[in-house]
Specification:
Layout lengths: L13 E7 L8 E6 L5 E3 L3 H4 L4 E7 L11 E6 L2 E6 L14 E4 L8 E5 L5 E4 L7 E6 L3
Parallel strand pairs: 4-10
Antiparallel strand pairs: 1-2, 2-3, 4-7, 5-6, 5-8, 8-9
């Protein structure tokens, strides 16, 4: 094909899709499962085109449930705040990877992470936050 051309295969009926970093390069990839057909894998090449800045947050519940389902996570990176609700679902008949993924845009790292747990407790992390890695946050007892 021509330079810049993208080929996408069409399907009759997508049954499920998961989004996760399949190749460990920091950008998110997609795997779909089609009705009466083999799965399709869509690998993003964004990390080859530009620097990816991200943070994954793995929740470990104590008073709440084990995976922190029902928690709200806010990540501050520079002047931007990103928020996600950990609901444990990501699509019809599918479950994406449980660490919550935050793309940080041009910010090289996250400055602060706040978790509002279902129990009403709150966790705040504002130091030792990894660059392009996973932060494990445990619910206070």
């Amino acid at each position: 094909g021509q330079k810049g051309e993208i080929t996408v295969a069409g399907t009759l009926s997508s049954r499920s899709a998961v989004i996760f970093d399949l190749d460990g390069d920091g950008d998110l990839d997609i795997v779909t499962n089609e009705f009466n057909a083999a799965p399709q894998v869509f690998v993003s090449d964004l990390a080859r085109k530009r620097a990816i800045h991200f943070l994954q947050v793995r929740l470990v519940g104590g008073a709440s449930n084990r995976d922190g389902l029902g928690a709200t996570v806010r990540v501050r990176a520079g002047s931007t705040v990103y928020a996600k609700y950990s609901d444990g679902k990501s699509g019809y008949l599918s479950q994406s990877d449980l660490p919550l993924y935050f793309g940080l845009g041009d910010a090289p790292k996250a400055d602060r992470v706040e978790v509002q747990w279902p129990s009403g407790r709150k966790s705040v992390v504002d130091r030792d936050i990894p660059r392009n890695g996973t932060l494990r946050v445990e619910e206070p007892r």
